[in-house]
Give the backbone structure.
Amino acid sequence: MAGKTMHAVRYDSYGGGAAGLKHVEIPVPSPKKDEILLKVEAAALNPVDWKIQKGMLRPFLPPKFPFVPVTDVAGEVMDVGPGVKTFKPGDKVVAMLSFLKGGGLAEYAIAGESLTVARPPEASPAECAALPIAALTALQGLKTTGIKFDGTSSSSNVLITAASGGVGHYAVQLAKLGNSHVTATCGARNVELVKSLGADEVLDYKTPEGARLTSPSGKKYDSVIHCTTGIDWSTFEPNLNANAKVVDITPTLWTAISSTMKRLTFAKKQLVPLLLYPKKEDMEYLVQLVKEGKLKTLVDSKHPLAKAEEAWAKSMDGHATGKVIVEM
Ligand SMILES: NC(=O)c1ccc[n+]([C@@H]2O[C@H](COP(=O)([O-])OP(=O)(O)OC[C@H]3O[C@@H](n4cnc5c(N)ncnc54)[C@H](OP(=O)(O)O)[C@@H]3O)[C@@H](O)[C@H]2O)c1
């Protein structure tokens, strides 16, 4: 597609939020050796996208300006590099793009073969674009606590905070597939919705019981997938069983220090900072679950690329119910 241009949304500097996004016409990129050129059908936003724009991951991300953000996409293969073995033009796929290159907020994007998987016709572009960061993090978090997805897990009590969010709504469904009893927290408006995802009991985080994280049925938790911020260890601790693991998916330096101290002192209740390490086999597993109707994507809202700033603002606001999607 040499010489062809495309519509893309990018930013030129740190900060600026939604107002910092610019609509531009730039050349369609060409795939190199192990790369795939996609016509993007849908892209999903994650908090990390605007955190990179804010400069929270500097000096590593973005590697340079201008930067076309967003990593999670679904689309159609248009062209492949000479080393690509498993895909051909016309294939429908889901991909997690490189954090270093971004590129998802555009009509065409470059994906690596190693994090691209086939998308079955039963699964829509929007519900699949939503999967990579959010569902992979939920799956990795649950696996970190020892939950297995091969039918061999014995029942455990799991607490999922911010269960109405991008990661949390997948964590609830996956924890149930892993044979867990799920206690979830969310705002009052989403209590019934989170129950419909499979949560056994739901706490409104703005009530005293919700703030204390106490299970309505008196259960102690074996694991916590902690998908929000601002909750101290002292709040978790009285609600935990002896060998519980609290997986913090928004770790800070304090999380790292506290986690290390607990390991050094042989504390039984562990705090585990998690950074996503995406794996193709996990993406394939998640897409298969969507195909079988066992994993649903809650879509907060869909926005056309021409109004990408509305999607950006919605994600930054921190109150999305499920995933914010941009359609091309
Ligand atoms: N470590 C990693 O690799 C990794 C990967 C993915 C995400 N993350 C991080 O994980 C966090 C969550 O990501 P996300 O995509 O799930 O975010 P999100 O979709 O933006 O989460 C929004 C949801 O959180 C709920 N919420 C906010 N505060 C809450 C509280 N105190 N208790 C219960 N629910 C609360 C909101 O409900 P209301 O509207 O009712 O307030 C809303 O539904 C972000 O900080 C993100 O950067 C890390």
In short: The longest strand covers residues 35-44.
